[in-house]
Amino acid sequence: MSKRLYIETVGCQMNVLDSELVAAELLDAGYELVGSAREADTVLFNTCSVRQHAEDKIYSALGRLKHVKDRHPQNIIGVIGCMAQKDQQMIFRRAPHVDLVVGPGQLGRIAALLERVAAGDGPQMEVSPDRNSADRAAVERSFARFEPLRTAKVRPVPHQAMVRIMFGCDKFCAYCIVPSVRGPEQSRPAEQIETEVRRLAEQGCLEVTLLGQTVNSYRDRSSGRTIRLADLLYRLQEVEGLRRVKFVTNHPRQMTTELLEAVRDLPKVSPYLHVPAQSGSNRVLRRMKRGYTAEAYRKMLAHIRQTVPQAAITSDFIVGFCGETEDDFRQTVDLVCGARFKNSFIFKYSPRPKTRAAELYDDDVPHDVKRRRNNELLAIQNAISLEDNQPLVGRTVEILVEGPSKAARRRGAAGEPTQLVGRTTCDRIVVFDGPKHLTGKILQVMIEKVDVFTLFGCP
Ligand code: 5AD
Ligand code: SF4
Predict the structure, then answer these.
(1) How high is the pLDDT of residue 218?
(2) What is the DSSP letter of 157?
(3) Residue nearest to atom 6 of ligand 2 (CA)
(4) Ligand 1 atom closest to the CA of 345, numbered from 1
C-alpha cells in the first residue's frame, strides 16, 4: 500500500530546506507526496520556535487533526524541527494523538521511526541532549548532518535551490532560541558544498541560496587551510551552468571587506545582503547582546554602499524588547529612516524560555505598545520601499522566472498566458503576464509600475 505524505512547513528557509530533504528521503522510502493533510495518511508538521505565535499555530493545527485521528487511528501525525527539540515530551502531553517527535538533529531517522510507529511500537521521540547538559562534542554529534541526495522532483521551483553551508548558531543573542534548538555552530566542508552545487547545476538549477544562521561566519578548517564565505563564493563562481548565488543571513559584525569585494567582483553573486540590525538603540543592542553599536552598524552600511553601490540591503527589527523605552524606539526609527533598507522584517518581541532575556529581564512593554511600534516602523519602511522601487519604472531588469503567481495558481489558470512571478538578483519580486513555459528562464523585463513589495512588468 502506498503511503501518502503531507508536510506542513512554518518558519524560516532552513525549515523549507529541511522539509524538502525529508520529502526526498521519504519518497525514496516509497511514500508519495500529496497536497493537503486531508488526502494524507502521514502528516508531518515542520515547526518553528522563534516566536510564541508560530508555536500556537502548530498546536491549534494539531488540535484540528484530533478528530481525523479518532476516525483513522492508523494515520500517523509527526512533529519535527525546532518545536520538537524545544517541547519534547510536552508535545505528547498537549496533543496525545501525536505519534512522532523528531528534532532538527535527527531528521535522518524519520523513515525508520515512522516504520516503528506503523509496526505498532507506540509513540516515538528522538531529540538532541540539552545544549548545557552534555559536553559540546556530544551535543555536536547529536545534531547529525542530514544531507540526503537532492532531487529536483520535490523542489517547489526546480531552477532554484537552497544549500545549507552551516548548522546551528553560537551567537546567543539574548532573545533567541535558535542556539538551543539548532545546536552548536558547524560549517560544512567547502568541498562537499561545491559538489552539491555542481550536482544541482547539472540538474538544471540556475540559482542557489546558501543558508546559515550567520552565514558570514562560515569557516571550514577541514582541509588544514581556513576557507571563509568569500573563498567559497569564488569557488562557486566557477560552477558551470549556475547563474546566481545568494546567501542569508549575515551578522553585522562580520561584513568583511573580502566578502563585500567578492560580492562586487563576482558576476554570479547577487548584490543582495540581508543584515539584521534588530534595534537602533545602543542600550537595547547591549541588552540583546548583539555585539555592536548603532554607530558601528551605520559604519558597516556605509562600507557596503561604498564597495557595492548597487546592493539591496534588507534588515530585521524586534520592537518592544524588554525595557525598550519610547526614546529607544525613536532611535530605531532614526536608523530605519537613514538606512533606506530595501525591506525590513519587523517582529514584536516574544519571550522564549531559557534564553538570557527571558531569564534576566521582564517582558515589560505592553502588547498594544509593541503593536503600535510595529505598525509605525512598518509604515515608515513601506514608504521607503515604495520610493526605492519607483526609479525602476521604465527600466529593464533581469529576472529568473519562478512560475505562475499564487493568484494564477488559485484560479487554476487553464488558458495561457498566465500571471508569472520572477525575482531580480536583488530579490525584488516581479509579476508579469506570459506563457508558462517561461518558467525557469532568465529574461529581461521592462517595469511598468511598482508598489511596496512588487514590480509589475511586461517581457
Ligand atoms: N521575538 C521576536 N522576534 C525574534 N526574532 C528572533 N527571536 C525573536 C524573539 N524572541 C526575530 C529576529 C530574527 C528573526 C529571524 O526573528 O529579528 O532576525
Ligand atoms: Fe528557523 Fe529559528 Fe524558526 Fe527554527 S526557530 S524554524 S531556525 S526561525
Answers:
(1) 98
(2) S
(3) 48
(4) 17
Q: What's the per-residue H, E or C state across 313-357? A: EEEEEEECCCCCCHHHHHHHHHHHHHHCCCEEEEEECCCCCCCHH
Q: What is the pLDDT of residues 146-193, one digit of tens each?
A: 777 777 777 878 899 999 999 999 999 999 999 999 999 999 999 999
Does 88 have pLDDT greater than 80?
yes
User: Which helix (H) or strand (E) is 398 found in, with range?
Assistant: strand 396-404
Q: Reply yes or no on domain 393-458 having CATH 1.25.40.
A: no
Nearest ligand to the CA atom of 318: 1
How close is the Cα of 345 to the center of ligand 1, in Å?
Answer: 10
Taking only the tens place, the pLDDT of each residue in 289-323 is 999 999 999 999 999 999 999 999 999 999 999 99
Pick the CATH number of 4-138 from 3.40.50.12500, 3.40.50.720, 3.30.530.20, 3.40.50.12160: 3.40.50.12160
Residues enclosing ligand 2, CB less than 6 A? Answer: 11-12, 14-15, 48-50, 82, 177-178, 181-182
Which atom of ligand 1 lies nearest, measured to the CA of 249?
Answer: 18
Quick one: which of 39, 28, 45 has its CA closest to 4?
Answer: 39
Q: Is 58 helix (H, G, I), strand (E, B) or coil?
A: helix
Ligand nearest to the CA of 374: 1
Residue closest via CA to ligand 1's atom 7 equals 176
Q: β-strand 244-248 against 207-211: which pairing, if any?
A: parallel
